[in-house]
Amino acid sequence: MNVELTDFVTVFRTGQLVQMDWASNALQEAGIPFQRREEISGGLWLAMPTAPMTGPGTWWAVIVPKSHLTEAKEVLSGLPFEQSTTPDVWDFQPKPGVKLGWQIYSGILLAAIGIGAVIWALNVFKLLR
To answer: Regarding the domain delimited by 1-93, which CATH topology (the fold level of the hierarchy) does it fall under?
Structure first.
């Protein structure tokens, strides 16, 4: 049995769904094979979900076979936005109030975890006496 493995490379990564759709459509119209996937800041790669959700540290990537990389970059260069493979955490372009809300939520969550850790440590210390 002959099995040929294809090496895929990321040609585009964004936090904005509309840009990912434009890039996918442009590649499809050009006849370039591609795959789409969701990536999170923790390093997990997932198949493209049916109902994707935006948020900090969530990106969507378009990957192509290495043999089509140059052709794919040429097609994507004609799109009206910057093509990058390294977007930042806030690439989904939230409104200023949304960004502040995420930051407050993260601070409260970290504080709760810290308080829980201190309470747990005190209980363990009491048990050891």
So the answer is: Alpha-Beta Plaits (3.30.70)
